[in-house]
Amino acid sequence: MPIACYRTFAFFLFLAANVSVLAQADLPDRSPRASIARDIGYTAIGISYSSPSVGGREIWGSLVPYGKVWRAGANRATTLTLSTAALVNGEPIAAGAYALFLIPRSADSTWTLILNRDTSLWGAYGYDAGQDVLRTELEAKFARTSNEEHLKYDIVPQNIENGYLLLSWEKLRLYVPIKVETMERAVAEIQEAIAAAPTESEWEVYAQAAEFLLWAGTPGPALQYAKKVMQAKPSPKARWRLSRAYAAVGDFSQAIDAAQSLKKGEEGKAFYEAHKVEVDNALRNWQSK
């Protein structure tokens, strides 16, 4: 074949290859990308994944084999990020980004959760157990009736230091407990704010600290700060805070007296009328103790 013919043939091969590439349509992924981020205390927790659907397929033991490392999603490896150190199912994990894998087993067995340093993987291809930072066992729960068509993750805070990661797909519900350190830093922040505040403004930090500690379930210190507010800047709002703090430590007699006193005086009456439902409900509850 003449050289010119070879060149023509090569040109058409090149053209056909490029036309094939250019002709590929940009279509939505059948397992679309998804992510969720939530804070628990000071810790930002995020998870990025791709979400496959059931699509009438048999999932467990078939599409997702038992006993093999699974990407816990689709496409690229699922990634968990922690902005601070945390306990994952009771095991210490440093702040960072980790690939999350699972080893599924039959419905009546525990499943293995894996956190791995290599977040660059496509699925579990190239997975290296030597890069694991965590292997821990979890109880896989299966719903009797509800069915989650699309795989999804949720991050559920329970309080300022505890929450869980929830994986739902088909009938699977897999809970991963997460615990973070919050109170130690919060107490330090309160102490620093008090030290930095002008004397005439300290009561504002006391009030903020009392409200936070009541919400956080630490009533003893909350009561002490609530008392300091009443000493420095007495008001109906401060008295109502003190009342709630007494109730939180179980001193219902003092809580009732403080709340009842809101009905006295013009300023107190105005506060009481504005918060009547909340105050009366609390009084009924405390009086029943």
UniProtKB/TrEMBL annotation:
Residues 1-25 form the signal peptide. SUPFAM superfamilies: TPR-like (SSF48452). The keyword Cytoplasm does not apply. InterPro entries: DUF2911, TPR-like_helical_dom_sf. Keywords: Signal. It holds the Pfam family DUF2911. This is DUF2911 domain-containing protein. It comes from Phaeodactylibacter luteus.
